[in-house]
Design brief:
- The protein is built from eight helices and 15 strands.
- The chain is elongated.
- The strands form three sheets. It has a seven-stranded parallel β-barrel with strand order 9-10-11-12-13-14-15, surrounded by five helices.
- It starts with a helix and ends in a 7-residue tail after the last helix.
- It has two domains: 75-146, Immunoglobulin-like (Sandwich), CATH 2.60.40; 150-363, TIM Barrel (Alpha-Beta Barrel), CATH 3.20.20.370.
- By secondary structure, it is of the alpha/beta class.
Amino acid sequence: MLFYLKKVLSCIFVCTLSLLIFACQVPAGLNGTNGIDGVAGISPEISINEERYRVINGVKSEYQAIASTPAPIKNAVFFELNGGIMPDGSSNMLNVENGSTIVLPIPTKPHFIFCGWFSGQTINDAQFSNITPVSRDMVLYARWKKIGPSVTFIDDDGSSVFLSTWKLILDEKNINIGLAVITGRVGTTNNLSLFELTQLQAEGNEIYSHTYSHPAVYLESTTVEILEQQYQLSREWLSLNRLGFINILVYPGGLAENNPEYAEKLTITKQYFDYAVTINSKKFINVYPFDPWMLARVNGDTLSLVEIQYFIDSAISLDGWLIILTHSVNINSVNQIQKLKDVIDYCFENQVPILPLSEAITYYSPVPED
């Protein structure tokens, strides 16, 4: 017992001595005095200004606050061409940020018109446009419309000679054409009457505006103001008499880029009509996509049969649209009548459809078929 008591006292002595030695090693305060307690620190005032820089105690720092933003979601858009060819530089697949729109490529395909990109392959699937947001991964399908050549005849002025020339040909060949009518002359001497035009329209022929009194559009004397008045009067007459396609014009004399006030005349034409037919010395076949206010045609009065056949062959090779101008007053011989019959037969032999203007417009429009 005494032995254990001595052990305990010995341990207490050793621990006490160790503590005294440690205390002697701690440095004293300044000049041997105790150390002075530190002063409590002051927290700085920190804010962020409109430029996203940190402001510390009212002073702008060089450090900008950057908010962490999540990575944008990307959607994959695949283009199924259905036999078409992408334009140069366009890819068949795009990665598109969610909710954004894309500029859609316009592919090509021989003998076809591109009708747009659709969400599926059936007629019930919606069309996808440049303003449609991309919200998921998707496949867009190109839709196409088969086209080929066609021929349209337009007889100018509305002469009463039409009944003894063209009307006989139409009845024999079972086709329809268009008549560009000078509305202010209807019912006057040597011109078709309102009743006769109504009958021709009922048989499937089409009536178009050839202005009210036929001022040559290409002349400088035919000002924009005169042209607008002519357009207004002609459309009003056609609408009042429930005749024709008031949205289609045949320019008297034609309109070309080198004509005085060309741009101004074209602008006013666009305000009154959706389509306009002209004579163009540089262009003879209309190939899609074509300018709806500058549809070209050739002069069937002056061209020979061989020359017209050449233009039909060109339309066949280009899948193009040939518009042929005639004037009934110039179909004044058996040879002229036979020439027109031979042109029609040549179209039949080569399976080129003869379509009135509005039907041809629909045929070449980028609207999918059911």
